[in-house]
Design a protein that fits this description.
CATH superfamily of the largest domain: NAD(P)-binding Rossmann-like Domain
Number of domains: 2
Number of helices: 10
Strand order of the largest sheet: 1-11-8-7-5-6
Distance between the termini: 46 Å
Number of strands: 11
Bound molecules: guanine
Largest sheet: 6 strands, parallel
CATH class of the largest domain: Alpha Beta
Structural class: alpha/beta
């Protein structure tokens, strides 16, 4: 069994990006600039955005964090997005999700300039991705592809089962794993809350990508020997013994499933760090895109 070490690979990627940034600086060029907008005070979202800003500092990018109150109106947020769209210094930006209920998420995501949409959430970029055109791939799916690539995990002709159909992970992942190329060329089944007999499906999978958000959902009895496991779950489970009062738990019963798996991502230290590394990579791509204009 091989651990797909997202912490190590994301560090490698950050080192590669740091070298690129050094070259830009040596040539006197502008370095990539990422902005992150966060609305409200959700603890997990604040932690993620802080990690994204720290990652920018680590590789030498410029970063801007825009904090808006929980009572921000849709119009106010749309005005902020317009400002970021127009600002030539910003190469890419993200709107951290989820947004408070008074704001229509779809409307907001459609307001982002597709050329600055480093999350790849705009319908134009999502459509391009589905049509194999060059574009921003959402960071978590992009990170999973990169992990499979760097560990040379065979995906061609394999049966990939995706658990969860979220717009951020499950849906794009199901498209990407079925695309021509590597990683890809899989036969994909997407499962969700209305799927019947899920064990019957997971037990036939060569590769399982679980993005459900239910701690320890996937048990050893549900998988076959030598399965490849990608665990996207990151649920905060209360734990009085933990310093923060909670532990981050994945969708997979790691202790038992890892005994049957050929490759498996740990939680934490698997997919999570890859998401941030690939957001940096998308910001680098955004900067190249703007320089060519
Ligand atoms: N919330 C959970 N994951 C993500 C992500 O990848 N990007 C943004 N913007 N919000 C998220």
């Amino acid at each position: 069994m091989t651990i797909l070490d997202g912490k190590k690979v994301s560090n490698d990627i950050k080192n590669e990006i740091t070298e690129e940034v050094k070259k830009m600086k040596a040539k006197g060029e502008k370095v990539p600039h990422l902005a992150a907008v966060i609305v409200g005070n959700d603890g997990a979202s604040l932690t993620y955005v802080a990690s994204k800003v720290r990652a920018c500092e680590r590789v030498g990018f410029e970063s801007t964090m825009v904090r808006l109150s929980n009572t921000t109106s849709e119009i106010e947020l749309l005005d902020k997005i317009e400002e970021l769209n127009e600002n030539p210094d910003i190469d890419g930006f993200i709107i951290q999700l989820p947004l408070p209920p008074q704001i229509n998420t779809q409307k907001v995501l459609m307001a982002v300039d597709p050329d600055k949409d480093v999350d790849g959430f705009h319908p134009m970029n999502f459509g391009k991705m589905a049509l194999d055109m060059s574009t921003f791939i959402p960071a978590t799916p992009f990170g999973i592809l990169e992990l499979l690539d760097r560990y040379n995990v065979e995906t061609k002709g394999k049966h990939t089962v995706v658990i969860g159909r979220s717009h951020i992970v499950g849906r794009p992942m199901s498209i990407l794993m079925g695309r021509k190329g590597f990683p890809g060329n899989s036969t994909v089944t997407i499962t969700h809350s209305h799927t019947k007999n899920i064990t019957q499906i997971t037990s036939q999978a060569d590769i399982i990508i679980s993005a459900l958000g239910v701690p320890n959902f996937l048990k050893a009895e549900m998988v076959k020997d030598d399965v490849v496991i990608i665990d996207v779950g990151i649920t905060r489970v209360p734990d009085d013994n933990a310093a923060k009062g909670y532990i981050i738990t994945g969708d997979v019963d790691f202790e038992n499933v890892s005994k049957k798996a050929s490759f498996i991502t740990p939680v934490p230290g698997g997919v999570g760090p890859m998401t941030i590394a690939m957001l940096l990579k998308n910001t680098l791509l955004a900067r190249e895109l703007h320089r060519k204009k």
